[in-house]
Amino acid sequence: MVALLTGSAAVADATGTAGLFVPVDAQLVKSAEGIGVPQGAFAPYTPQLVQVTGAAGIPTTDVAAVALTVVSVNPTSAGQMSAGPGTGTLSGVMRYTASGSTSNAAIVAVDENGQIQLQTTTSTNVAVHVEGYYTAGNGTAAAGGYTSVKMTRIVDTFNGVGLPKAPIAGGQTVTIQVTGKAGVPTGASAAFVNFQVDNNSGVTGYINPYATSATTRPPTVLNFPATPAYTSIGAIVPIDANGTIHVYVAPSNNIGLLMDVEGYFSAPNGSTTPGAFTPAIAKVYDTRSATHIAPGATVNIPLAGVAGIPSMKLGLSAAVLNLTVIDNSTNGGYARAWAHGTPEPTGVGDLTFKTGTETNLMTVPIGADGSIDLHNVSSDTVDFILDLEGWYATATPIVSCPSPYTYHSWTTTIPAAPVSCTITVPAAAGDTLTYSVDDADEVSTVLSGTGPTSIAVSVDAVGGEHVITATHADATGNELSTRYAFTLGDWRDASWAGLPANTGTASTTPVLVAAIDANDPHVLPDAAGITYTISASANLSNPVVVSDPLWDGFTVPTGLLVDGGTYFWHAAITGPIDYAGHTGSITTPTWSFTASSTVTENDPTAGDDTPAGSAPGSYLEDPDSSSGVQAFGAKYGRCTLDPTDPHLRKSGGYGTVGVKPITTCPGTYSGTKVTNHTQMWFTVEFLIAHWDAPTGPNFGDVGYTTAAKGGLSKYIQTNVVVNCKNKNRTWWAGDTWSTDVERGHSYSAHVKSRHAVLACGT
Prior knowledge:
Layout: E1 21-30, E2 48-51, E3 63-73, E4 79-85, E5 91-96, E6 102-109, E7 115-120, E8 125-135, E9 146-156, E10 168-169, E11 173-177, E12 190-199, E13 205-211, E14 222-224, E15 230-238, E16 244-249, E17 254-265, E18 276-286, E19 298-302, E20 316-327, E21 333-339, E22 351-353, E23 356-365, E24 371-378, E25 382-393, E26 398-400, E27 410-411, E28 419-425, E29 432-437, E30 443-446, E31 453-459, E32 464-473, E33 479-488, E34 496-499, E35 504-506, E36 511-516, E37 529-535, E38 545-546, E39 554-555, E40 566-576, E41 583-587, E42 591-595, E43 617-621, H1 631-636, E44 640-648, E45 656-668, E46 678-684, E47 687-692, E48 701-706, E49 711-718, E50 720-723, E51 729-742, E52 745-752, E53 756-759
Parallel strand pairs: 27-33, 35-42
Antiparallel strand pairs: 1-8, 2-7, 3-6, 3-8, 4-5, 4-7, 9-17, 10-17, 11-16, 12-15, 12-17, 13-14, 13-16, 18-25, 19-24, 20-23, 20-25, 21-22, 21-24, 26-28, 28-31, 29-30, 29-32, 32-33, 34-36, 36-39, 37-38, 37-40, 40-41, 40-42, 43-52, 44-45, 45-49, 45-50, 46-47, 46-51, 48-49, 51-52, 51-53
């Protein structure tokens, strides 16, 4: 059983950001012995203050919350335990019965005096084991850091809150919206939630919470016994990009469900700092199909380097695990986990269990050799199952940029000068830092062993999203990565160009394109949608056709335009304006053209009409390979193609323009490469019907770069020269096919670019 509690703590300001975890392993309260509270059982409904700061290895200042295991020790009657900050509101953390000790996990906010309070509804002794604390700071959530919220119920199937007012049938999966509720923002990577399961099936069962983006249901489950009817079960649940989670109910059960949100973790892929949490889902230990755990036995469990957990050299400090104990005997007991190589803690453990199957969340410091010890403190033979929910690490690269260019900021003013940022990695002799800015060629450096390594990087003062990636890798290939992103400029302020050219002549089935004009520093976000309206009237009344929202151009269908007719059109564009999910809209100027049956539309993108939100790029397994599935693209996502570095090829006049198109494919393994199968098309303003592929496919100086495992594979086309035909700008479009060979399979990358306008001269 698990419950997780947070609250709003009033803590002193400190340098840095709040919510970062520091592991501790100590006894905080044992009422039977007078540790932490006056000796003796708790009296019903009588709050007990507990001094947290300065006790059990916790510092005296700058503590926001503590991670605890709370235990009701052999109560004589059923009841409920509550907890909260010393001067704040109490919230329930678990229900207990008179059938033996009951334990739950909790994260409890600490008040300005460094205290928490505990309360029980019946007389019982209480024990509390502290597993670590979260730092306080200036109130800004650190990337990968934890932010507590006021406990809020967002699901109640008894009253129809968040889900229908009905029990959830066994074998059913329900979808729950998390972000936008209870103070959880868009972009949160995971949430601390407390489930309460009302199981009236009379048999043991489980629920399985996971992010809705998972293609398969993970093997990790949260178990509940046949009795009592209500069981508190908490978890750190990864949140999908759309802010939702799934909850699956075991087939043999029919349950009522309550779900309280108690806190959330910020995305770990930004300016990740020491103590940041990375959510993960994996089964890391299971004795059911191997050796069962004998009475009194202690097992050693390696964790570093397992299931994606980083190595100790990369700063691994603690793991968050759901511990399940299956006891089919008669006595029950408790389980205790600690860092291998350190003394076993005294007192109660991480999970007090009775007969049957029970689960508890625990945060366990990890020993210097990367393992933990787990002790079966009972007279029964049991099974242990450990499901990973995430880890804390300290050696992730830290990316920092000056205000206002913070992680996931969106600054509408484009600066006059480049933005200077810094990448810092703790001392790690012989390890490697590999970094890149805006998909430029990666740079690697060997880390110092005497102090932190700091690298200054520069971000160009141009519009659009800018991304700094940094990877710290040790000699064995273990790595921790940071992805720091911010956006410059407001695309709604851009100047726009239309294709066909205004007042020109076009075919009767033209491709309409709206793009940000040449020399304008703004960039249209990839997620933006463009809706085209075309009419025979200058005010665009009685439109001939209105397109669906599209990613790029719109091909006017056959039979709608009359030969010799004059037509007017514009584009309405809607796209993101921040990282919180808000959108903005603009409408371009109105342009016109004359339709002519003598003009042939040669735009090679004619007929593509890609819907908004599905930019045309993929990374698919070659259909001729043995497996014939599209697994690679599903895992790593689409490639991109950009006409980078446009530059004038002749001084003065309207001569030629050069570009360096780059095809970038994410998530490839070391040893792979994107090879050359590239086509590009160019046209010149006012000569819209004439598209050129100046030297055909496979032209120019070519090359590829391959990043480390989990990074990027890029194909770079250089020395691409476009004749501007004595005009001041040219339209550009590209289409790339690339081949990647990995582990005996060929993967095909296919990506198209948006139309772009390039300046040819002054």
